[in-house]
Design brief:
Blueprint lengths: L8 H8 L6 E6 L1 E14 L6 E14 H10 L3 E8 L3 H12 L7 E3 L7 E7 L4 E7 L7 H15 L4 E5 L8 H11 L5 E4 L13 E2 L3 H8 L6 H15 L3 E5 L5 E5 L2 E5 L12 H14 L4 H15 L10 H9 L1
Parallel strand pairs: 1-4, 1-8, 2-6, 4-5, 8-9, 9-10, 10-11
Antiparallel strand pairs: 2-3, 6-7, 11-12, 12-13
Helix pairs in contact: 1-10, 2-8, 4-5, 6-7, 8-9, 9-10
């Protein structure tokens, strides 16, 4: 296995110190993650399912909104573009964005679809019992698509990096990605958290970050060994016609494939609490690092360290620049 050389603490600090001076445009499927928490003491007599006695509930930003929140937590300014419904979930999502210092002017309201909301029923020990999804995952209508492209023109202008957070919930279409690519050609790197049905839309992107399963699906290859990962990453890059690919492999770390070469990045050893939203942290950190002047390898290593922090937290989580420096230092 070719292991990429570790980033030095001094270099990491220099890159991270620039985060607060940067602005990133994020386009994608914004979501609201709602958690209904209770205690399980018995099984229902009506069906073999646990009875959850309600204790509390709370909401967090999810999807592209969580990507934007990760960027803000790391110190960057964010312009977010996405689609919401005309419902209570949209109001809660806007309120949470406001609390995080993320402008909401880029959100397009579509009364024909609900705001994407995932309701998780969990125990007081953070064990998930069930999930209810409110969504309509067909592509947005042409009028909404046109409004998204208009919002992109404002959000991407002057941005130091551009980011696509694709969850296949309708906001990401070919014209939307093409609108972003026009700004990418003006030197702002374009980083994509992909979904395989849209693979052909990402041609020209700077970096695409599939997870292990997505890389297997796109290349029709099993990824078991590091050599499998190397071959799959190269094939994915050819298929997506992008400049570089970063395959996230969970406990096996990451694999970076680019025109400059290939190499593995070992996982950061930490206790895993919840992997929800870890991909959001990876793509946010990588995009911000590239905007700060990092090489692809340096951006991948910073993203790897950042993921190691958030998987130790429950639910969609973020980390600060100080936390990122601390984990590299340790």
């Amino acid at each position: 296995m070719t292991v990429l050389a570790a980033i030095s603490l001094e270099r990491a600090k220099a890159l991270i110190s620039r985060f607060a001076q940067l602005r990133v445009g994020v386009v994608g499927d914004v979501m609201l993650d709602r958690f209904v928490v209770g205690r399980v003491t018995r099984i229902s007599p009506e069906a073999p399912v646990p009875v959850v006695r309600f204790e509390r509930e709370y909401s967090r930003l999810g999807g592209a909104a969580n990507v934007a929140q990760n960027l803000r937590a790391l110190g960057a300014q964010v312009a977010l573009v996405g689609v919401v419904g005309r419902d209570d979930a949209a109001a809660r999502l806007r309120a949470l964005l406001g609390e995080s210092g993320i402008p909401v002017e880029g959100l397009v309201a579509d009364g024909a679809r609900p705001t994407v909301e995932k309701v998780r029923v969990v125990t007081d020990r953070n064990q998930q019992v069930a999930r209810i999804d409110y969504e309509r995952d067909s592509d947005v209508e042409p009028d909404v698509e046109r409004q998204l492209v208009e919002r992109i023109d404002s959000a991407a202008r002057g941005a130091h990096a551009l980011l696509v957070s694709d969850y296949l919930k309708g906001a990401i279409t070919r014209p939307v990605v093409e609108a972003l690519l026009r700004f990418k050609q003006a030197s702002a790197p374009l980083v994509v958290d992909p979904k395989i049905p849209h693979l052909d839309c990402y041609a020209g992107a700077t970096l695409v970050t599939p997870n292990h399963l997505e890389a297997e699906t796109a290349t029709h290859r099993r990824i078991v060994t590091d050599e499998d990962a190397r071959i799959a990453a190269q094939e994915f890059r050819r298929r997506a016609r992008c400049e570089a690919v970063l395959v996230t492999r969970g406990e096996h770390g990451m694999w970076l494939s680019s025109e400059d070469g290939d190499g593995g990045i070992p996982a950061v050893a930490r206790e895993v609490s919840d992997v929800t939203g870890a991909g959001d942290t990876v793509v946010a950190t990588a995009a911000l690092a590239l905007a700060a002047g990092a090489t692809l390898a340096e951006a991948a290593m910073l993203a790897n360290h950042a993921a190691g922090v958030v998987v130790a937290k429950f639910g969609p989580a973020t980390l600060t620049a100080e936390e990122l420096i601390a984990v590299i230092q340790n």
